[in-house]
């Protein structure tokens, strides 16, 4: 925010007669071409960020429209997240092979095509398939933002250029539920997908005109196709098995244990492959020999499970138990995003000033847990103000932990492992979200025979448990190394 304010005000704020300061201030200003490029990229990343929260608000309407249980409708979210996660490692290869501009246009085009197809879906299997297509398009957008802006801005301007993308990304969790409530409540659940069309089409036109045609073919990262196939097959099979267990209320059903067995075998195969392959694997398991990376990754995995699971459950709770409208459900979900955005705005400065990541993380864990307690004790008569305050407090904790855990991820890693660690960390966060949604949908459906309020209480208690479990890796976070002082 500081960078954008500085760029907007320009040299007018310098002391009179200080021409050197004015000149330096002018050099700090982002040139108009770079600002236009950042704004074009912002459209695509903003649409992708809005999509998850908008669609979650619509899930109750989708389940009613197709008359499917929670264990089936969760695939609308998990299918998208799985596809998005598995396509991310292909970003470097695709940009090197086809160029960043062509890859961006193809990804954004696939995303908007998947969105439109979701809107016209005639059955639940069709909707899930089109959500997978949408995820395949959306998965490369955010990594490509960093690639394209990094090439255009250079290291010295990268932070200021990323403000144009980071600020809308922070607003998406707040605006998404509200916008979803307005659109779905007024026009129906299909418009949760159609709303992407004008944003993405404008982004495509502007990207076609303004994105630089970068070189390609000069550097191509190696693609671990066997590992990617094993990991994707294993995760999809495990998700399908857990969904089957929820639908049949038993792990003894063949639709539960068979996919789980196949998934376990595929994941075991990936483990052997990743440890023996000479190529760079999708997730390099050797990274887990570093204490900081292991503790940070487990912490972020568990908190993603809690966060994504909460965002999946909350709209269903508000609509099914408290009989809120879609718009009211969206508004009631907004405090979570507001708390996260506020924490991510200010906690980074606190971390830089104090260097006390572990202490700040543990304090943030206390906030995240405390905010969930009212939901674990939830009933229809629960005070709405208390629930809203709890969501805001949980958002503060979650947002703070995202920053503090990220800052210690790379401690003890050599420079050549930074890029693989970044990719692996991001994938593990998304997989935590998938696990959270699937497991919580399974628990909720298991209690579906009880009264709605009674079913949601134990499910939210599991969310609280996942968050509390994350205290263990938080305690294992190493302290920041102290710089050596000259004698």
Helix-strand blueprint:
Elements: H1 2-9, H2 19-28, H3 32-66, H4 70-73, H5 75-87, H6 91-98, H7 100-119, H8 124-138, H9 141-153, H10 155-187, H11 191-194, H12 196-210, H13 225-248, H14 254-276, H15 291-320, H16 326-354, H17 357-376, H18 384-408, H19 418-446, H20 452-469, H21 471-475
Description of the molecule:
This protein is mainly α. It has three domains: 29-213, Up-down Bundle (Growth Hormone, Chain: A); 225-279; 287-479, MFS general substrate transporter like domains (Growth Hormone, Chain: A). The protein is built from 21 helices and no strands. The protein has helices spanning 2-9, 19-28, 32-66, 70-73, 75-87, 91-98, 100-119, 124-138, 141-153, 155-187, 191-194, 196-210, 225-248, 254-276, 291-320, 326-354, 357-376, 384-408, 418-446, 452-469, 471-475. Helix 5 packs parallel to helix 8, helix 9 runs antiparallel to helix 10 and helix 17 packs antiparallel against helix 18 (384-408). The longest helix is centred in the first third of the chain and has 35 residues, at 32-66. The radius of gyration is 23 Å and the shape is globular. Mean pLDDT is 81; it is low at 1-27.
């Amino acid at each position: 925010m500081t960078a954008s304010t500085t760029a907007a005000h320009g040299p007018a704020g310098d002391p009179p007669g200080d021409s050197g300061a004015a000149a330096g201030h002018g050099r700090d200003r982002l040139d108009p071409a770079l600002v236009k490029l950042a704004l074009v990229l912002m459209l695509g990343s903003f649409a992708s960020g809005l999509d998850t929260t908008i669609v979650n608000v619509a899930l109750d309407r989708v389940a009613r429209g197709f008359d499917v249980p929670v264990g089936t409708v969760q695939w609308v979210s998990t299918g998208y997240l799985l596809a998005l996660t598995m396509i991310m490692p292909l970003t470097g290869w695709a940009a090197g092979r086809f160029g960043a501009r062509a890859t961006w246009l193809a990804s954004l085009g696939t995303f908007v095509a998947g969105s439109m197809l979701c809107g016209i879906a005639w059955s639940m299997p069709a909707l899930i398939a089109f959500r997978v297509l949408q995820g395949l398009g959306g998965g490369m957008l955010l990594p490509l933002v960093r690639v394209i802006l990094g090439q255009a801005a250079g290291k010295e301007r990268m932070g200021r250029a990323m403000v144009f993308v980071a600020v809308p990304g922070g607003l998406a969790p707040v605006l998404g539920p509200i916008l979803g409530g307005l659109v779905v409540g007024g026009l129906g659940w299909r418009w949760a997908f159609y709303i992407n069309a004008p944003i993405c089409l404008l982004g495509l036109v502007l990207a076609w005109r303004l994105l630089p045609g970068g070189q390609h073919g000069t550097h191509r990262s190696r693609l671990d196709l066997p590992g990617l196939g094993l990991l994707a097959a294993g995760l999809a099979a495990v998700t399908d098995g857990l969904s089957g267990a929820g639908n049949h209320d038993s792990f003894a059903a063949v639709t539960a244990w068979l996919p789980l067995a196949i998934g376990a075998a595929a994941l075991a195969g990936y483990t052997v492959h990743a440890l023996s392959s000479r190529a760079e694997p999708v997730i390099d398991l050797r990274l887990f020999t570093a204490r900081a990376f292991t503790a940070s990754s487990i912490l972020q995995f568990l908190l993603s499970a809690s966060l994504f699971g909460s965002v999946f459950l909350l709209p269903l709770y508000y609509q099914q138990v408290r009989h809120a409208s879609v718009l009211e459900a969206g508004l009631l979900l907004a405090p979570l995003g507001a708390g996260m955005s506020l924490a991510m705005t200010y906690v980074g400065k606190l971390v830089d000033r104090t260097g006390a990541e572990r202490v700040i993380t543990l304090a943030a864990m206390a906030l995240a847990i405390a905010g969930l307690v009212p939901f674990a004790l939830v009933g229809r008569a629960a005070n709405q103000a208390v629930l809203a305050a709890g969501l805001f407090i949980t958002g503060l904790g979650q947002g703070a932990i995202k920053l503090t855990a990220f800052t210690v991820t790379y401690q003890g890693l050599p420079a050549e492992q930074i890029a693989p660690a970044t990719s692996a960390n991001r994938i593990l966060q998304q997989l935590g979200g998938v696990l959270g949604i699937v497991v919580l949908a399974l628990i909720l459906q298991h209690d579906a025979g009880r009264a709605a309020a009674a079913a949601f209480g134990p499910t939210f208690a599991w969310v609280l448990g996942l968050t509390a479990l994350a205290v263990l890796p938080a305690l294992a976070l190493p302290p920041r190394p102290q710089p050596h002082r000259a004698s």
